[in-house]
Amino acid sequence: MAFIEVEDLVKHYGSERAVDGVSFTVDEGEIFGILGPNGAGKTTTVECLEGLRTRDSGRVSVTGLDPERDGAELKQVLGIQLQESRLPDRLRVGEALDLYASFYKRPADTDRLIESLGLGGKRKTPFAKLSGGQQQRLSIALALVGNPRIAVLDELTTGLDPQARRDTWDLIEQVRDSGVTIILVTHFMDEAERLCDRLAVIDSGKVVALDTPAGLTARAGDEQRVRFRPSAPFADALLLDLPEVAEVTRTGPQMVVTGRGNLLQAVTSVLARNHIVAADLRVEQVSLEDAFVALTGKPLDN
Amino acid sequence: MSSLMKLVQTETRLFVRDPTSLIVGLVLPTLILVGLGAVPMLREPSPDMDGIRFIDYFMPSLIVMSVGVVGLTNLPSIMATYRERGILRRMRTTPMHPGNLLLAQLTVNLGAALAATVLVVATGRIVYGVPLPEHALGFTAAFILGIAAVFSIGMLVAALAPTTRAATGIASMLFMAVMFFGGVYLPRFMLPDAIARIGEYVPPGVQTLLDSWNGEAPAAAQLLAMGATAVVAGVLAARMFKWE
């Protein structure tokens, strides 16, 4: 049996099927991403897995425990960081960690946790006086204070500035390296691409793809685009004759060549033979973003 | 230390750190007593009140206030804030049931209401010679049932109000009604008879406090009304309370 198994999970809100037959497994020690646009059913899926919501049908097993039947036992091994959950304004960092540590049978060493999350100097700072990034780190600390085997992190970096996001990503990798299995719910492509070992792409309550980030990108095709500004005019046919090239378009002085295989080398060698210099040369690979559009027919940030 | 004790300790710290809850909840009734006591006329026996001093007559109303402020302004707004900010929801993700947070809040607020009452009664006794309740058993019963009724109503507001704003608004209205019927705004001998009679049954039961203060056994029907309010509101609150 896999570490975490979700099979044919269904959850309705009224007549709406928020989760419509979702299945996936997560292996111990991996960072598993659940990716999808807002309202796709990501949060509901993980809430059924956490035991915060009762499923309508399907089977869920987390380290062999059923979240509905064995909720109390599961909460000892599951650390959950919720989307948009705050603390009382006047509660201090150290107090919050001590309090939440007291809820668990085998809590983590709170001093070490505070240090490893970079909150060492903030022990006596009240919640309201922390920056957004610090509040988020405290929230992660609270999810880890019970020494969990699994951490579920929901929309971890929403609202953080770019530096705080990158710091948070480093932190998540450290947590995984310490042996915690991580389920990461996100609607950010770059986050999923950077962190996740495997991904479930969810759209309208269904899993539309389940693969590694590289695998997902490959599915969308190996199409590439090369952009440049040629130093001298030439006929499109020069490039269109190449087997690698599928399409050539011009916008003003700029050329965009679309194709497959070893496109860049084919294009640059033809240009060099004809003594044309390609200025501002750029190659665009298919990104996870393109893969998402190909899979769901819509962009991620709607 | 058990997790529940830790919660009570944390909630106590938060109560003490909030200057509003500390001043309004703990010392406001005593400040009003001192303000009234500064007026010489109110310290003299008054023919309007069968020769009783106003300051003696007013003490039960100050106790109504002590209980009302904490139970109807502090308690519901804090619980609603905790729900709105996802604090109860976060606790649901831990092995600790959020019901324990509610229990801790009740404990802290009961402690505060008790402390405010002791402070105002002790100040009255020491500074102005206001006598202590003569019917101790009756007063204890009246006080416990009264506080239970007010706190249950406060919890019911917290259970039903969809937002913090709504909780604060509803609770303030109820608070003003409790103050009015409890004779805080206008002394009860100035209220119309019908209103004073209704006031005998409005939590926390100012008449039961007054009677036991003067050495009489509080009326059973009034005590029963407080007990019934506490049970009905308390059960409804427990059933309808939403954690998120």
Automatic annotation (TrEMBL), chain A:
Q: How does it sit in the membrane?
A: Peripheral membrane protein
Q: Is ATP-binding a UniProt keyword of this protein?
A: yes
InterPro entries listed in its UniProt record = AAA+_ATPase (IPR003593), ABC_transporter-like_ATP-bd (IPR003439), ABC_transporter-like_CS (IPR017871), ABC_transporter_ATP-binding (IPR050763), P-loop_NTPase (IPR027417)
Q: Where is the ABC transporter domain?
A: 4-229
Keywords (alphabetical) are:
Antibiotic resistance, ATP-binding, Cell membrane, Membrane, Nucleotide-binding, Translocase, Transport
**One MF annotation (Gene Ontology) recorded for this entry:** ATP hydrolysis activity
Q: What is this protein called?
A: ABC-2 type transport system ATP-binding protein
TrEMBL record, chain B:
Q: State the source organism's domain of life.
A: Bacteria
Q: Which UniProt keywords apply?
A: Antibiotic resistance, Membrane, Transmembrane, Transmembrane helix
UniProt cross-references to InterPro entries, sorted A to Z: ABC-2_transporter, ABC2_TM, ABC_2_transport
Which chain regions cross the lipid bilayer? 21-42, 62-82, 102-124, 136-159, 166-186, 219-238
Classify the protein's membrane topology as the record does: Multi-pass membrane protein
Task: Give me the Gene Ontology terms describing cellular component.
Answer: ATP-binding cassette (ABC) transporter complex
Any one GO MF term held by the record is: ABC-type transporter activity
| Ranges for domain ABC-2 type transporter transmembrane | 6-194
One of this protein's Pfam families, by short name? ABC2_membrane
User: What subcellular locations does the record give?
Assistant: Membrane
Keyword Chaperone carried by entry: no
Biological-process GO terms, alphabetical: response to antibiotic
Q: What is the protein named?
A: ABC-2 type transport system permease protein
Q: Which organism is it from?
A: Glycomyces harbinensis
Q: What is the lineage of its organism?
A: Bacteria, Bacillati, Actinomycetota, Actinomycetes, Glycomycetales
